[in-house]
Amino acid sequence: MPIVNIDGADMIDRAIAWHVRLPDATPEVWAAFVDWLEADPAHAAAYDRIAAADRALDARAFPAPAPLAGNDNDACAASPRRRGWWLAGGGAVAAGVAALLAITLLPTRADPYVVATAAGERRSVDLPDGSRIELSGGTRLRLDRAAPRFAALEAGEALFHVRHDPGAPFVVVADGRTVQDVGTVFNVASDGHHLSVAVAEGAVVYEPKGVAVRLNPGDALQATSGATNFVRSTVAPREVGGWREGVLTFTSEPLGEVAAALERLYGFHIILSPGLSARPFTGMVRFSGTADRDVPHLAELIGATWRRDKQGWVLAEGAGR
């Protein structure tokens, strides 16, 4: 059987080093680890294989010993011995991993998985650590069983209920930016062009390795792709994640974002005229989920005309507020 190649010994050594460090990692180390994973898809593949190899070696080389009479601690002796074996030396570890891979062909990227919702659909995901994520419609979230404290929001909107762990902060990556929890309920939305973060409970740190902005309950932030600046605002904590009850809050956001939010949440297809799409909108609006009621209501709020054709709802500039 062929040996699986992990693209060089250096990458093996780095993956092993990260695997050894993570159990006792600080928030700064976790942020550096995420940066390393995202720098090259091969890094994540190498780490997945090392983690799988570690689990396999643990089961083969260090089976749980039979308990000895009068010594309740012997049953827990395998884990420290395995950790000491990993720390014995990079060359020996790499050789052991390579030998195991020669025996067993490990899958590439076996642990990551995607949770997605269609427009108008909602879903809740419970994570092994006790955290929970509520997904709005039109949302795509990438998770990893090997790294349960990490999530990548590729599109859409999600409300995160995070069980805080000071030794392993929960990290969310969206639109190329990083949001790190400090014991939190927070909402993140991204369409690949604009990112918004709002906090209901606890706190998060936006871009912990960059500007490191702390957001507390009631704080919100909006950023645009490719821009280094951002806009801070406030929101009532009870309104964070309001999309679950049909309440949407916007702060100087383009009407195109409002239309995108409605399409995600309810499946409405709204076409805006060019001049209307970029107009900023601020307000809190309650929607029912019925297009015949909600779209004319939105048009009235923004002073637009509306009509319906085969493609969907069309809103254009008109005399209004």
UniProtKB/TrEMBL annotation:
Q: Which InterPro entries match?
A: FecR, FecR_N, Ferrdict_sens_TM
UniProt keyword list: Membrane, Transmembrane, Transmembrane helix
Segments passing through the bilayer: 85-106
The chain positions of domain FecR protein read 114-204
Q: Which residues form the FecR N-terminal domain?
A: 13-52
UniProt name for this protein: FecR family protein
